[in-house]
Amino acid sequence: MSALTAKVAEPAPPPPPGTGAPKRRGVELALLAGAVLISVLGHLYVGLATTGRIPGPAARYTAGLCAAALLAHLAVRFRAPYADPLLLPIAVLLNGLGLVLIQRLDVTTPGHLTAGDQLLWSALGVGLFVLVVALLRDHRVLQRYAYLSVTVALVLMLIPVFFPAVNGAHIWIRFAGLSFQPGEFAKILLAVFFAAYLAANRTALALTGRPLFRKLRLLPGRVLGPILAIWLLSVGVLVLERDLGTSLLFFGLFVIMLFTATGRIGWIAIGLLLAALGAYAVGTFEPHVHSRVDDWLNPFASIERGEGPGQLAQSLFAFGAGGLLGAGLGHGQSFLIGFAAKSDFILATAGEELGLVGLAAILLLYGLLVARGFRAGLALRDPFGRLLATGLASIVALQVFVIAGGVTGLIPLTGMAMPFLAQGGSSVVTNWIIVALLVRLSDSARRPRPGKDPAE
Amino acid sequence: MIRYIRWCAYFCALLLVALLVNIARVQVWESAAYGANPANKRPAIARYAEPRGDILVDGRPVTGSRDSGQLLRYERTYANGPLYAPVTGFSSQTYGTSFVERAEDAVLSGTDPGLSAFPLWYELSRGRPAGGNAATTVRAAVQRAAYAGLAGKRGAVAALEPATGKILALVSSPSYDPSTLSGTGTKVKDAWTALNADPARPMLNRALRETYPPGSTFKIVTAAAALDAGVVTDVDAPTLTPDPYPLPGTSTLLPNAGTGCEDASMAEAVQWSCNTVMAKIGVQVGLRRMVEAARRFGFNGAGLRVPSWVSRSNFDTDMSPDQLALSAIGQFNTKATPLQMAMVAAAVANGGEVQYPYLVERTTRNDGSQVRGGDRRSLGRAMNPATALRMQELMVKVVENGTGRNAAIPGAVVGGKTGTAQHGVGNAGTPYAWFISWAKAEGAPLPAVAVAVVVEDASAHRGDISGNGAAAPIARAVMEAALAG
Questions:
Q1: A148-200, pLDDT tens digit by residue?
Q2: Between chain B's N and C termini, which has fewer beta carbons within 10 Å?
Q3: Of A260, A383, A404, which has the smallest distance from its Cβ to B19's Cβ?
Q4: A2 falls within a domain
């Protein structure tokens, strides 16, 4: 406990010579220009393909996008000059592509336009990005707020239980016509907590405990307690909120960070065993989850029963219709998916209209984002920073895998937002904060050591 | 810790590879299977996304397309639905297609590879050409005359151009409006249910798909077979036939409808429709040669397509002599479609050659250039040219001074044959009235039209149903319309 609140005093290893990386802000600016250009061209293309006209607010749209990208760039340039130059352009490009896809799907739902809202949320997200980059000068400050983070995270996750279920899941708060998914914010807070807790206790976790069986050691209750609590939390989320995706994400995040901190495979085994048990029990006894598993095992069962294609079947049809090159923006029929076409199933529109080529490009963009996150983690020297970078990168990776795997029939479908692409305010804002933290972490990682001459 | 972060990164890379492999599976490997899944609406959406090509009669469209604003967007309209329903069929979002709509669907819906000016152009551009048109051989005036002649009575008319096989009219009555089946929804389903439940069976294309006992009109086939086989060498020679005629091997006596058939010649037997004489001649020709003759006219031939399939007309191939006697006068198991009997009349008019009947003159692209021409070809020779000439004379006599005088047209050579077919258990059903005929303008080298009319109106008084009374006037109107063209 004391280790958590103690002043961060890492015995810094002797830095290798020449750690001062080039700043590469010019590269970032050029990449940003490319990302904005692609988004604007997509915006114009959708307008031409669906209505035959350049969209009315195209000029304002372009100006807004440029302004947001420029603002974010300036924040990085002045407050995190050594940050990884790929992070921000990737985020802008993914967010821009998401806006294009949502704008395209708005054409099919004239009674329910969402692109405007999404644009506002994106602006808010960029605003928060700028705030985080500008105000958080050192990521290690966060280590002090570990228990505050976990408390707020728990509260955020518990609130929706008291709100009515939407589409079978208690994950939304509806307030004054707006809806939030507090679980989205909670995952950052949990990553902060895990990083801080594990950084402080990793030695105890890795080495203490009575030997139980060869290398497997029983852990002392003091360190085991919080871990069991997290496992219970995941199951609790699942049972109370019926949100399989978030539960999976929290648990996966925890296992990955635990492994990173301790390197003990036995824990991973225990974790996976517990997860498997939990998943099996819930998959068997919880009807909402059970039906998802059935859909995954046989997506066309409802067609054979004569009830028409289910959502997963429609999603697979959309991907299949895209083929290698796609139908072209505005020329697909992914609206057949119906409910959640703009959020959970947004990838199906990308798949149908941009094809395997476009979809693979988007997935590789995520892969690049995650890789740069891990790279920051590798280059950092403090355990908290390393763990936090690993955790944040893993959040993005797991989330992409869970939802992309779900809509393409690789794993059972769980409701989750595709980072940056999917319609949904809380998700976009959260992802911008994640990117802001990664920018901050990578800046610390690449920054020249104090007292050392970069030219040395 | 560095090592474990690397492991995590490798794990995430593994997840990414799994995703990439899986999307390749879904988008490339499974793509065709998903596209072919009947629950996938995309093919239907693409099919109805553009106006369907039109079916033309006399160069003018008898169909159209209406933008419904629905998911399956363009719905079929029909300018004169009930009149042309046996030709066009329907094109329904719910129930598919029939007749020309079905046979030429690839051209009409724009999927035919021939619609593309350059090979693979539309495959590469992922577009779809505008639907092409199908020009039919039907002539509006002939079709209207036939439809008006039937006047809602149950029956059918098939008219051919003997020298080419072009189908000039194809009418089935009562008819229906195929536009009621266009689109989706309960209205379409209700219309479908009502049409199928209607005892008058309006959706049955009687001209192509219903087979009737041809009755006395079949005597043309028997007479041609007798002449070809040499059983009868002089059509005016007495045939030494008793009246009534005892069916061979039985004690059943076959009567005639009229008098004067005893010992009549074959010419008189055709002219006055003597059952006794023609039954006896049929037996004399023998089973093998009768079957052979019927086959040459098109009976027992499966797979006639105009381009829609046509029901098989039947002449039994294994019969006792008494059954053969009845079959030779178009009774027993002998059954024919109206189109088949029109082909019989056309064969006589065309010098013995049977032309393959066809309904689609040509298919064109949207700009009018041709995709495919009609399939004009011969089905073979039904009788010798000399026999055909002799048969023409006999059929002309029927109209000039015989049972078919109602079909006479001033200024034209008309040959015909009446028929009144018994059917039902113990012949209890209302008889079908038949008339088959052909007409040639005086001095013209080629006959203009061959026609078969059948009227099966159960509501009419039994005595009114006769070939000359009910069917011949319709045939005359059809022939007049064809001659006027």
A1: 988 888 888 878 777 776 666 666 676 655 667 877 888 899 899 989 988 88
A2: C
A3: A404
A4: no
| Beta-carbon contacts of residue A386 (< 8 Å; ≥ 6 apart) | A260, A377, A378, A380, B1, B5
Decide if A293 is inside a domain. yes
Beta carbons of B27 and A319 less than 8 Å apart: yes
Instruction: Name every chain A residue with its beta carbon within 8 A of the beta carbon of B45.
Output: 333
Name the residue facing B26 among A320, A393, A394 (closest C-beta).
Answer: A320
Poorest-pLDDT segment among A365-374, B33-42, B224-233, B239-248: B239-248
Angle of the B275-285 helix axis to the B287-297 helix axis, nearest 10: 100
Q: Classify residue A32: in a domain, yes or no.
A: yes
With an 8 Å Cβ cutoff, are A320 and B4 in contact? no
Q: Give the one of B9, B24, B35 whose C-beta lies nearest to A321's C-beta.
A: B35
Residues of B forming the active site: 216
10 Å Cβ neighbour count for B307? Answer: 16
Distances (CA, A) of A117 to A112, A185, A405, A423, B438: 11, 19, 27, 9, 76
B39 neighbourhood in chain A, CB within 8 Å: 300, 303, 308-309, 313, 317
Instruction: Give per-residue pLDDT as tens, A249-301.
Output: 888 888 888 888 888 777 778 777 877 887 788 777 777 778 888 888 888 88
Q: Which of A289, A189, A294 is nearest to A239 (CA)?
A: A289
Q: What would the pLDDT profile of B116-171 be if each residue is shown by its tens digit?
A: 777 676 666 666 788 888 999 999 999 999 999 888 888 999 999 999 989 999 99
Q: Please report the domains of chain B, with CATH numbers, ordered by start residue.
A: 209-366+379-484 (3.40.710.10)
Count of domains observed in chain A: 1
Q: What is the extent of the structural domain holding A390?
A: 21-446
Verify whether the Cβ–Cβ distance A317 to B42 is below 8 Å: yes
Tens of pLDDT, residue by residue over B220-264, are 999 999 998 888 888 888 888 887 888 888 888 888 777 778 888
Q: For the whole model, what pTM was predicted?
A: 0.78
Neighbours of A123 (CB within 10 A): 17
User: Across the interface, do A400 and B126 touch by the CB < 8 Å criterion?
Assistant: no
Confidence (pLDDT) at A168: 63
Bond prior to B51 in cis (omega within 30° of 0): no
Give counts: helices (H), strands (E), chain A. Answer: 16, 4
Contacts of B70 in chain A (CB under 8 A): none
- A405 with B22: Cβ contact below 8 A: yes
Query: Hey, of A307, A319, A378, A381, which one would you mutate to test binding to chain B, going by the most B CBs within 10 A of its CB?
Result: A319
Nearest-Cα distance to chain A for B14, in Å, is: 10
